[in-house]
Amino acid sequence: MSTNHRKFSPDFKAKVVLELLESGKTTNEIAIQYKILPKSVQVWRKQFFENASAIYEDSVSSKKYKDELKEKEEKIENLEKTLGRTVMERDWLQKKVGSLGLIDKLSLVEPELPLSITRQCQLLKLNRTTIYYEHAEKLLDQIILNRLDEIYTEFPYYGYRRMYHTLIQEGKDTNPKQILSYMKILGIKALYPVKKKNTSMPDATHEKYPYLLKGLKVTKPNQVWASDITYIRLNHGFVYLCAIIDLYTRSILSWRLSPIMDERLTINVLNDAIHKYGNPEIFNSDQGSQYTAQNFINILVNHKISISMDSKGRALDNIFIERFWKTIKYDNIYPSGYLTIKEAHDGIDAFMHQYNNHRLHSSLGYKPPLKFYSEYFEKAA
Predict the structure, then answer these.
(1) Region label for 313, one of left (φ > 0), alpha (ψ between -120 and 50) or beta (otherwise)
(2) 320 and 288 Cβ atoms separated by less than 8 Å
(3) How many C-alpha atoms does 93 have within 13 Å on its Cβ side?
(4) Cα separation of 242 and 284, whole Å?
(5) Can you say whether residue 35 is alpha, beta or left, with left for phi > 0 and alpha for psi between -120 and 50 degrees?
């Protein structure tokens, strides 16, 4: 805006300053309103405060007037500071939100807020039509995934057909192909108490490892570790939980959450367990790609750990970790209803500590797992 050669009367200056004091507007807002420079407003305000008291120098109300002026000036300064902080926080938040993907942005939309969905979409830079379609579709997916997890935890021997018919009887809109796809996302397969006839071709993509636990008597800690991955439901999505259990003491030696089920998850959990507790003699897992990946196998080989893998579809091969999944889901995950990954991590961390250090096991002489673990080595020392 141009203010060259403009002259302002004392009345105009007084009007501007009085509105600044009374309206609660910022200096910039007043300057824009009257098409003047913010610096001019600041100068006039300063002059006003310096000279206003002279009019009532000898007046009884002089002190009261000065106090009111000072109070208004402090109020304006506080408002400007608050506004500046709010703008800074808003800019920071917008940068953070801008880095989120579509699913994460969708999860931030809350229909219950007084703020309209249209305005929420504008702030999140989302197409409003996307919200209604994507949100409804993701919500339906999440409901079915959560229910499949519950069914599998209760009935691990259910295949996709039984899963499908269970959901249909509950009134869910789905189909067998969709159930197979969901089970793949969850990383689950039906488990069988007896070996089924092999009706499929062997998987030639990785080296075959025998199941070493059949008939094996486990008599000490670090003799056998077992590991598995399970699905953890969240309010707006899910994550995967990987853990390693010591078969003799039932101790959970290491665990980690991840939004992606890949070899990095299993490698991080294995390295952490080895770092804390040394090497086991045998490491048992299923034949999932996260455990057959060459980078994962190399760690076991380099530490001279014998590799044991479950037969496909065998329910009893990794029974201890399967039992633990049922325990943590019924005792912690389902009742807690975690909203975010951080909330899930903090809650599961607290449960793991309680389970390892305080939960009594009848098979361990009513001692907590880690106490039973440490006592063995204390006696051996």
Answers:
(1) left
(2) no
(3) 11
(4) 13
(5) left
The answer to whether the beta carbons of residues 179 and 149 sit under 8 Å apart is no
Report the CATH number of the 224-380 domain.
Answer: 3.30.420.10
Instruction: Give bridge partners of residue 238 from the DSSP assignment.
Output: 233
Mean pLDDT over 190-217 rounds to 63
The string over 133-156, giving b where at least 16 C-beta atoms fall within 10 Å of a residue's C-beta and e elsewhere, is: ebbeebeebbebbbbbbebbbeeb
Give me the residue label for tokens 């009345």: 11
Contact 82, 76 (CB under 8 A): no
Structure tokens at 253: 């030696």
Q: Higher confidence at residue 14 or residue 197? A: 14
Whose tokens are 């800074």? That residue is 88
Query: Rounded to 5 degrees, what are φ and ψ at 114?
Result: -60, -25
Which tens digit of pLDDT belongs to each residue from 110-127?
655 666 767 777 777 766
Residue range(s) of every CATH 3.30.420.10 domain in the chain: 224-380
Q: What is d(CA 171, CA 185) in angstroms, rounded to the nearest whole number?
A: 22
Residue with tokens 């025998």: 210
- Roughly how many angstroms between the first and final C-alpha of the chain, as a whole number? 84
Walk across the sheet containing 252-258 and list its strands. Answer: 252-258, 237-246, 224-234, 282-285, 306-309
Please write the tens of the pLDDT for every residue from 59-85.
555 566 667 777 777 777 777 677 766
Which stretches does DSSP call E strand in 277-327?
A: 282-285, 306-309
Question: Which amino acid is located at 109 in the chain?
Answer: V
Of 273, 232, 231, 281, give the one whose Cα is nearest residue 254: 273
Residue 95 has pLDDT above 70, yes or no: no
Question: Measuring CA to CA, which residue among 36, 16, 14, 35 is closest to residue 25?
Answer: 16
Per-residue pLDDT, 206: 66
Q: Which range is least confidently modeled, 132-141, 161-170, 367-376? A: 132-141
Mean pLDDT rounded to a whole number for the chain? 80
- Which residues of the chain form beta strands (DSSP E)? 224-234, 237-246, 252-258, 282-285, 306-309
Phi, psi of 230, deg, nearest 5: -135, 165
